[in-house]
Amino acid sequence: MKRQIWIDVLKGLGIISVVVGHITYNRLLWNTIFMFHMPLFFLLGGWLHNTNISQRTYLKAKAHSLLLPYLSFLLILWPLELLVAFPDQRWTAAWLQTELIKPMLVGGQLLTGFAAVFWFVTSYFLMQQLMHFLLRRYSLQRCALICAVMLVCAYLNALLFRPLWLPWSANAVLIAAPFYCIGYWARSRDIAKFAPVFVVVALTAVALNVFGYHNVFDIKATDYGFPVVTFISALACVAVLAIIARHLQSNILGRGLAAIGGASMTIMFLHQFVQLMMAKKLGISQALPRIAVALLVCYLIHQLFKMSPLTARFFLGLPATKKPFGAADLAASKGIR
Questions:
Q1: d(CA 241, CA 332)
Q2: For residues 235 and 253, what is the distance between their CA atoms, to the nearest angstrom?
Q3: pLDDT per position as a tens digit, 156-186
Q4: Residue 319 · residue 308 · CB < 8 Å
Q5: Backbone CA torsion sign across 121, 309, 276, 24
Q6: I need a labelling partner for 52 at 20 to 30 A (CA). Which of 22, 120, 197, 199 fits?
Q7: Residue 94 phi/psi, 5° resolution?
Q8: d(CA 57, CA 171)
Q9: How far apart are CA 34 and CA 159, in angstroms?
């Protein structure tokens, strides 16, 4: 698939939403962002999915591009989180087993603070493997039916068994896979011609939050909002942002967003560390400077990682033989062409 700049623009909008959502004190803004920011990345994954490789090759490629950076960042950030959270704690063998080793192995909701967002990577990896298996073996119609059943199971999980969650947030696959399938289906459609419909639905979705209704997706907490309604709300919001991204891709704002989008994984891994350290150690409570600094510092770190084959491999998931390390290389390592 030919590289599409608007995809990076949309990723930029998405990762900025993630950072803002984790820092803002504005409840309405938080609700609005949590309505679409994770579904956006699931939909994008489906849009870019390539079924023309074997399951084994796909597994190896995604383990390298997703799980290797996950492990690299986790080995650094989780011990740091414990040092900051428990400065006076004696690191006994029993405590290390419970607080260090177990969360790193199980992941999901046990990871908090600096590593609070890491649940996304493992659930995304599991979801991609499942969808690759389904899309290679079944028609899109049958895959859609399977994903519809998964969506029902996701709502049952959220409504009846919310405290239930699986290692690596595997239960999030139930809600992620339907978005992924729709993204895969939508790439052959012209969504722009339905822009007025998407705008109306998206504005209605935001209005629900304005009037106090809980129209949000907090996927880590197994909170999927109103059954079907919040799902459609997320689809409409992402569609509107995708149409905006297409219009922005050729101007300076679009190029800036695309640059941020190209660093989205690094920003995802590191932004909580940066902004929480600003709050805890520097006493900066205002949201705006923490948002701006988190984005800038993480972007600069991403550029530094690209300069070394070793850091590019372990923290960006790039193949060891790839150089020079530019945006196109990073995109290729994620399966984007």
A1: 23
A2: 24
A3: 999 999 888 899 999 999 999 999 999 999 9
A4: no
A5: negative
A6: 120
A7: -65, -40
A8: 24
A9: 18
